[in-house]
Amino acid sequence: MKYFSSSIAGKKLVDFQQQDYSVEKFGDRLEVINEVIGDGEGNVHEFFSTYFGEYYDVSPTQQGWMAEQDAVCRTLEMLGTYLLNAKDIDTNRKVEYRFWKSEREFKQYKESENVVASAFETGEGNSEVEVFDMFYSNEDKNQKIVKGMSILSKDIREIVEIGRLQDLVEKAGDDSFVKMIENRIDASLPIIMDEEARARLLKIRKNVKGYVTRWIREAKDNQIAIKKAIKRPIEFKNLLKDEGVANKLDAIDFSDIVNNKELLRMLNREDMMDEDGLGLIIYDYNRMLDRMVLTVREQSIVDSFRQGYAQEELEELLGIKKNTVSETITRIAKKSAEFYVKELYKIAIKNK
């Protein structure tokens, strides 16, 4: 998901992600929302008009972003869902957004389907679907995604093991380090009598630079592994800035099985509205699970996590073995990763 962490008019996105679930009636929830997104003078806060006017990109491609992947849009959707889930409201009303590449394409659709206007469409049963037609802008530029997690300066300061490896990486990257190893090998060769050991050293001596480069690469991989093990981060992908766009955006990748296993254990924490957007990520993952076809056992585990049960409690709660619980969680994580990749592929083909 694309996350916006800059401050506008003294407010950050996290300030608009406050939902009081102890409030149950529609009218009371509406007051909560008005208080959250208002500016105190009866108007919507300047954050939204500035964001959608200056930062929001409405022109997705296979490497761009749709509205459902934008954290600000999802925040507004969550507030709407919070309102519509009030206990004293009963409605089957649904909203559908249709995206068009051009007005010409839209007109052709209307003519072929004999559609007069967007307004309302009648679905199955008595439910109504309100349809909004949206158009892409070919003038907007899209951001591209950079793959991979990196070690930050604060990781080097905060984690001793990463700091030690960093010292070695910097030392090994100096030409004097390679020269030192070559000199030590040269000094050792005359006194080594074992032919096999001597042949191995000679092989290393011919490509000391290559061996050192490989070691540096492995050391950096170990730094990443240490960061994951200690900080257990949700893996974001930082976006390249295009022509000085003054915002900071991150993306969650549901194709990572390890991440998905962590998210499964946190399914009941949509209220975690920190500046990293973790609550929104969990919200998105929950919605994706709702669209997937799960087995009875898989669904029971998902439901249990949503109710706040810990993994250690599922064996007794569901009457299944500990290893079966673990295997099922892995299977759900893998299945959701595959589902996510297929969804991305569909979007890419559609926008090609």
Strand order of the largest sheet: 1-3-2
Task: List the domain count as a whole number.
Answer: 3
Report the order of strands and helices.
HHHEHEEHHHHHHHHHH
Question: What does the average pLDDT come to?
Answer: 76
Low-confidence stretches: 61-65, 116-127, 140-147, 234-251
- Strand % is 5-15%
Largest sheet descriptor = 3 strands, mixed
**Approximate shape:** elongated
Count the DSSP helices: 14
What is the number of strand segments? 3
Rg, rounded, reads 27 Å
Note the topology.
Elements: H1 26-37, H2 46-55, H3 71-84, E1 94-100, H4 103-113, E2 120-122, E3 128-135, H5 153-158, H6 160-172, H7 175-188, H8 195-206, H9 208-231, H10 257-264, H11 278-290, H12 296-306, H13 311-318, H14 322-350
Parallel strand pairs: 1-3
Antiparallel strand pairs: 2-3
Which short descriptors sum up this protein?
352 residues; mainly alpha; 3 strands
Description:
The chain is mainly α and 352 residues long. The chain is built from 14 helices and three strands. The radius of gyration is 27 Å and the shape is elongated.
Short description:
The protein has 352 residues and is mainly α.
